Amino acid sequence: MNQVGVGLVGSQFISAIHFEAFRTVADAEVRAVASPTPDHVRKFAADRGIRRWFCDYREMFDLPEIDMVVLGLPNDLHCEAVLAAAAAGKHVVIEKPLALNLAECDRMIEACRRAGVKLMYAEELCFAPKYVRLKQLLDEGALGRPYLLKQAEKHDGPHAAWFWDVRRSGGGVTMDMGCHAVEFFRWMLSGPDCRQRPRAVSVQAQMGTYVHGDRTIGDDDAVIIVEFENGCRGLAEESWAKLGGMDDRAEVYGSGGVAYADLIRGNSIHTYSQRGYGYAVEKAGLTAGWSFTVFEEAWNYGFPQEMAHFVACVQHDQTPLVTGEDGRAVLEILLAAYASAGQGRKIALPFPSDAQRPIDLWKNCDDCLPSA
User: Fold this and answer.
1) CA–CA dist 48, 300 (Å, integer)
2) CB-based burial of residue 101 (10 Å sphere; 0-12 exposed, 13-18 middle, 19+ buried)?
3) For residues 189 and 230, is the Cβ–Cβ distance under 8 A?
4) How far out from the chain centre does Cα 123 lie?
5) Burial bucket for residue 137 (CB in 10 Å: 0-12, 13-18, 19+)
6) Chain segment 283-313, per-residue pLDDT in tens
7) How far is CA 85 from CA 8, 152, 347, in A?
8) DSSP-based three-state secondary structure for 330
9) Mean pLDDT of 222-233
10) Could you give the 3-state DSSP secondary structure of residue 255?
11) Backbone angles phi, psi at 214, to 5 degrees
12) Could you tell me if 61 and 88 are in contact, meaning their C-beta atoms sit under 8 angstroms apart?
């Protein structure tokens, strides 16, 4: 296969990032976009020079020139879209989390296996250059034997309304951003070839709705501890309640050293402005006073590198660094985290839950929400 033809599903924030990422990938071309709102998807396509647009992604999936689709959809639509893409013979890149529940994960994985297409799980932290270098330090023994990993991602809340509706999202910040930390831990401990992810053996979590109770019954701040079979622990700090723009940082503690990596402050300009200015960093509400002004934001997060890798996997029939099976393992850990918060105790893994949504293990959302 020469150039890979790409179709985007979605025309909001994350799909704009996906498009910008593909602009740096010479072996790929975004040839179509699908999104249900005609005026919005038409403008999205026109602004970016995308030749074809659709309101029904199934029509886009019928195009022979599309080899791979990238899904930037609300969580409750992931399963249906993956099944449709697999039926159409398209390779799939799916944004996190993989699905709302384990049954959906299994259907998606099996559908792609039967169709002979790749299901690639879009966890960009595994491609962020600073975190890649951090993993190299750990793999070469610079830090000794790891006993604690920490990863924190915090801001003041998501862009789109569906994130706040737990019937669609399946949970709050743990679903939205805890998935990043969990796969980060698994990847960091996977060895130099990234193929030996350790088994998680227990999860303990505390979460609450501290700031945004007027918008959601979901968790807006959470602390999660994941223990792995090798004895290392992963500590995730996740928040939709933190003001001042995005925080994304990691720490590795080992028997022979320690390392700190900050994706935002370590790759930014420390700026003071009396009047403020246009854009500092994702989720930064104000720019007057002191701020951290990012540059090459998508590159520092790893989006172009991630998409280049997935394109190469399609071109050369390679196994992705992050697969649908990895996405399923992450969701199982998140289900256990919500169960831990709900029961106030450590939860052992494996955790074969049949919950329809992770948040249902923390609180009975059907009793808390008005009818849809």
Assistant:
1) 22
2) buried
3) yes
4) 5
5) middle
6) 787 889 888 888 888 889 999 999 999 999 9
7) 12, 33, 35
8) helix
9) 98
10) coil
11) -80, -10
12) yes
- How far apart are alpha carbons 64 and 221 in whole angstroms? 44
**Location of structure tokens 């998680």:** 200
Dist CA 220 CA 19 (whole Å): 29
**Residue range 156-210, pLDDT digits in tens:** 999 899 999 999 999 999 999 999 999 999 999 999 999 899 999 999 999 999 9
Instruction: Indicate yes or no: pTM above 0.70.
Output: yes
Residue 228 phi/psi, 5-degree rounding, is -110, 160
Cite the DSSP H helix spans in 175-250.
Answer: 179-188
Residues 6+ apart with CB under 8 A from 146: 138, 188, 189, 232, 252, 253, 254
In the three-class reduction of DSSP (H, G, I as helix; E, B as strand; rest coil), residue 185 is classed as helix
For residue 175, how far is the Cα from the chain centroid? 9
- Taking each helix axis as running N to C, give the angle between helix 78-87 and helix 102-115, from 0 to 180 degrees, rounded to the nearest 10: 10
CA distance 325 to 98: 9
Query: At residue 365, does pLDDT exceed 60?
Result: no
Cα distances (Å, whole numbers) of residue 244 to 192, 201, 206, 223: 36, 35, 23, 20
Rounded to the nearest angstrom, the gap between the alpha carbon of residue 262 and the centroid of all alpha carbons in its chain is: 18
Burial group, residue 343, by CB count within 10 angstroms (0-12, 13-18, 19+): exposed
How do strand 91-95 and strand 257-262 relate by DSSP bridges?
Answer: unpaired
Give the Cα separation of 182 and 234 in Å (integer): 8
**HSE-CB for 57 with a 13 A CA cutoff:** 29
Copy the structure tokens of residue 335. 């289900």
pLDDT at 244 over 90: no
Q: What is the pLDDT of residues 309-340, one digit of tens each?
A: 999 999 999 999 999 999 999 999 999 999 99
